[in-house]
Amino acid sequence: xxxxxxxxxxxxxxxxxxxxxxxxxxxxxxxxxxxxxxxxxxxxxxxxxxxxxxxxxxxxxxxxxxxxxxxxxxxxxxxxxxxxxxxxxxxxxxxxxxxxxxxxxxxxxxxxxxxxxxxxxxxxxxxxxxxxxxxxxxxxxxxxxxxxxxxxxxxxxxxxxxxxxxxxxxxxxxxxxxxxxxxxxxxxxxxxxxxxxxxxxxxxxxxxxxxxxxxxxxxxxxxxxxxxxxxxxxxxxxxxxxxxxxxxxxxxxxxxxxxxxxxxxxxxxxxxxxxxxxxxxxxxxxxxxxxxxxxxxxxxxxxxxx
Length: 306
Prior knowledge:
Elements: E1 2-8, E2 22-27, E3 30-34, H1 40-47, E4 56-58, H2 64-67, H3 69-79, E5 86-90, H4 92-107, E6 116-120, E7 124-128, E8 132-138, E9 147-153, H5 161-167, H6 173-179, E10 184-185, E11 191-192, H7 194-197, E12 206-210, H8 220-223, E13 228-232, H9 240-245, H10 251-261, E14 266-269, H11 277-285, E15 291-293, E16 299-302
Parallel strand pairs: 3-4, 4-5, 5-6, 12-13, 13-14, 14-15
Antiparallel strand pairs: 1-2, 1-16, 2-3, 7-8, 8-9, 9-12, 10-11
Helix pairs in contact: 3-4, 10-11
């Protein structure tokens, strides 16, 4: 299961109720800050999430409404907060812009208060934990190095306790060994294999987060069968030509992507101040009913449906 906390859901400029782009995706002890628009550190504090373990930042692209908050965040780490390290992931040109912001404007010759690593990434898996991976994929928007991210749990075979009980497998390390794929020997000399107590392979939860995007045909396969999809909705269909001009999506375009890709749940964000939330929602739900529009501080849990 993945959890997403929306810190900022506005497009380009903040509104009275919506901050600039930023979300925290969590999985067990891991936390990832995706984008860091102006004011993100305040949103982190107001949400109650805090800065603990917020050591990885994934950037979708280098536009200011998605990166400018990194300056304030680093400034706060210089004076008030402490974290073990800070890793910032993104495309080359995105990181170049971030490097200028942090080293030339914020630090100005000073040493970062923690190990600060700029990690250039390209399409492919760049982070792997014991039970999930994070993969980047290319997204079409204005400028190079625009990325989306797939968070995906590794396939697993569920442990069947009733079978273990019937075979006399005791509670404790023996069951852990079987889950790890190892055969065990019981005190009476009987061998128990993993196949004896594990069910068929099940795929894990798949969660996709897309920042700004100007088209959807080239990201369809990355979104395929996702249990949750977060994507921008800067315009509505009445201004589809403007959306194309500025390389953004309408609510309908995001919904059509979700429908074609077989997505289970669609979450729209990055809303322009020109629209009412209910109009964006109505347009998307006319195509894909299981759509919601995110608000600042909304939290959603994304898990695989049985």
